[in-house]
Structures are given as structure tokens and as C-alpha cells.
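Escalation from tier 1.

The customer reports that the assembly of two entities below gives different C-alpha cells on two consecutive runs. Tier 1 could not reproduce it. I'm attaching the input and our single run for tier 2 to review.
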Amino acid sequence: GAGVSQSPSNKVTEKGKDVELRCDPISGHTALYWYRQSLGQGLEFLIYFQGNSAPDKSGLPSDRFSAERTGGSVSTLTIQRTQQEDSAVYLCASSSYDRDYEQYFGPGTRLTVT
Amino acid sequence: KQEVTQIPAALSVPEGENLVLNCSFTDSAIYNLQWFRQDPGKGLTSLLLIQSSQREQTSGRLNASLDKSSGRSTLYIAASQPGDSATYLCAVRWYSSASKIIFGSGTRLSIRP
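Tier 1 run:
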């Protein structure tokens, strides 16, 4: 595709439910990143994928958060048993070695936990 | 600890002025530094990427410089326009943790017509 896409654009869920957020990176980009941006805050790194593997999961805030990437392309971020503090905008970015790892961001998914 | 700081948090200037946004970072062994703009409710748009070996990059009215020894980067915006109003973020990738990028908290820029 022309850019990074994310779905859904908005998600409202009840506390305790599980949610899945999807990221479709730019075709051919081997690296994929998930970030979280809380209201009025900066970007918080969550996880990085190189291909299908995730060498750096250090940013995941708790074991309720997990992510996977299949076929070196689409990635899913799953939040189990959502809490109100999970409310934020979740941003995905992709990059590739031949572009000096310049990051391109998707529009984000705004998650609201009620 | 690797950190990225942007000061000021907010800046308001009249249209037409030239301005400089600052980004400072600890640990000079950076791989690259990237400047972004973020419009309200939107994702991030890449403005400029500076590699470790470079001193500056230019795109239109924007010029970004890098001084690793002092741990600083500046984003210069010439002849500012109301459409430049946005939050500007810098992000740093280090060699020691090349998979992890740390963002500054941003400078919210407002250009008054």
C-alpha cells in the first residue's frame, strides 16, 4: 500500500474486555514498531519487530499486552482484560534498511476503555 | 540512561518569523535522529532524518542540524506560516539499542496570523 494503515481508527471497549489492534505496514518494510501515546504525553515505545521476530519487547507495560507479526507483514497488538489506564492512541510505524530506517507512521487507533 | 528532551514545550510566534526548535539527547553515540510533526488527532509525519555521519538536512523551509558532541539537534523553520502550527517531535535511535527509538515530549508550535 501507499502508507501504513491501522484499524480500527477508533475503538471503545468496556473494562475487562480484550481488544485487537491491527497494523498493515508499507509493503517491503521489514521493521515494524508499536507505540502508545496517552493524552498530552509523548510516545512510549512498546515493541519492535524485525521480520516476524520481536527482538525487543521491553516496552510492553504488562503481561496483558502481546503482539505478533505474520508473514513479515501485518501485525496485531492484543490487550487482554483492558483497564482504563490503557486508554490511549496506539501508533504503528514501519521502516526499512534501504531507507536508513526512516520511520513512517500510521494514523493510529484511539482506544477508549470505559 | 538514554533520554531525549525538547524545550520549550510550547511556542507561539507571529507569522513570517524564522524560528528554531531544540532537541537534546544524552549519549552521543546515536545512529540517527528524526524530526516529525503531529497535527491534532493525527499520526506523525516524517520531516527530516539525519544520520550519525551528517551535520544537517534540508527540505524546503526546514533545516535540521545535528551536533553529536553537544548532544543537540535544532529544527529551523524559515518564514513561518499558520499551516506550520503543529507539535514537533524529535526521535533518537542509538547504536547500543538500535531497535528502540526514544521520542522527546514535543514542542507545540502555534503560528499567529
